[in-house]
Fold:
Amino acid sequence: MLFDEKHYKFMYQALLEAENALEKGEVPVGAVVVKDGTIIGRGYNQTETLKDATAHAEMIALTAAMNRLNDKFLTDCDIYVTLEPCLMCTGALKLARIRNIYIGAMEPKFGACGSVYNVAEDEKYNHKPNVFFGIYENESKNLLKEFFSDKRNNRTQIYLTNP
Structure:
């Protein structure tokens, strides 16, 4: 699926956030919240840095956007995230009333926007965001592959040097 140029511009910014996570040894996921063509919240995974299992890119970006608008609802806002949100993050996106969720890569183990669960489009809730996949999908996947490949290689090196 082809998207307007603006969507690539914002997902690119989410990819830059994911690279920040990678540089800090975090799982490379990044997110940006956009309102009226302006980024109002940024985030990248910081679960290791903050020792906080809830410090996902989406949660940090949502909090930044809500603080910027001084509002708990982000009704006219979109989020761009490099990896499909988990159950927690998808729930938070619905509670925040995010309008559109743009996703780079699907998350086949924990995704809650269509791959494992489909909380985003569940009509039992009072809000249903639109969900779009595939913007910079390969770039998003490659960052994750690089991270997990390095993790596996480091474990192998530790094992080989410490029998």
User: Anything to note?
Assistant: The radius of gyration is 16 Å.
